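Practice problem 4.
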């Protein structure tokens, strides 16, 4: 699966060089402190009869406000130095790596390709179910969003299947029509042949009977 277009969010921390010098802090130290604070540490586990569940202490940042309250050092008077005292923390976006547009408007494209050997129709059905569930679970208002299927290989396969079915039905109907015409023609031929046979038999029988009577008279 590949994603094209859109912009990925990031938290931008812009350090103030003058304040870093005043507090005798280095960018490397601030970066290391942020990395150590944004972790989830496993502190133990809970065992049951069937499984063992790890217990973690969540230390990840939940928002920009949490990042700004990180303690990065102490001043000369022993007070705490917060990140927001030496930097500006704000939401931002990463530089776009790809561009995707639909009908002249910015869009986020999702390319999904099936594995080799997988059934295309079954894969498309499963993908549609997953997309429907993700669409309903979007955490934002969908008022200005539209979901558009640009390409679907299953449609071509279904069109081909329908065409084959129509061809089979038409072939069966043509065969039945040909059989009906052949049967009708055969019956017509039998009726004509029977009429000719009756006519010939009548003439031949009359002649035989006449000849028989003539011979009897001679005797």
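Answer key:
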């Amino acid at each position: 699966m590949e994603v094209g277009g859109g912009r990925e969010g990031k938290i931008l921390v812009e350090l103030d060089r003058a304040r870093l010098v005043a507090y005798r802090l280095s960018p490397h130290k601030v970066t290391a402190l942020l990395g150590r604070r944004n972790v989830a540490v496993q502190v133990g586990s809970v065992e049951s009869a069937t499984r063992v569940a790890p217990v973690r202490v969540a230390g990840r940042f939940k928002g920009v406000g949490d990042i700004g309250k990180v303690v990065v050092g102490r001043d000369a008077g022993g007070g705490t130095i917060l990140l927001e005292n030496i930097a500006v923390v704000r939401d931002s976006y990463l530089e776009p790596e790809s561009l995707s547009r639909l009908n002249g408007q910015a869009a986020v494209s999702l390319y999904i390709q099936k594995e080799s050997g997988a059934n295309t129709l079954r894969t498309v059905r499963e993908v549609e179910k997953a997309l429907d569930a993700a669409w309903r679970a979007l955490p934002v208002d969908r008022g200005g969003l539209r979901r558009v299927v640009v390409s679907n290989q299953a449609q071509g396969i279904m069109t081909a299947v329908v065409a084959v079915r129509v061809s089979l039905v038409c072939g069966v109907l043509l065969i039945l029509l040909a059989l009906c015409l052949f049967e009708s023609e055969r019956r017509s031929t039998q009726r004509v042949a029977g009429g000719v046979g009756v006519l010939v038999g009548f003439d031949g029988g009359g002649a035989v009977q006449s000849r028989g009577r003539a011979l009897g008279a001679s005797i």
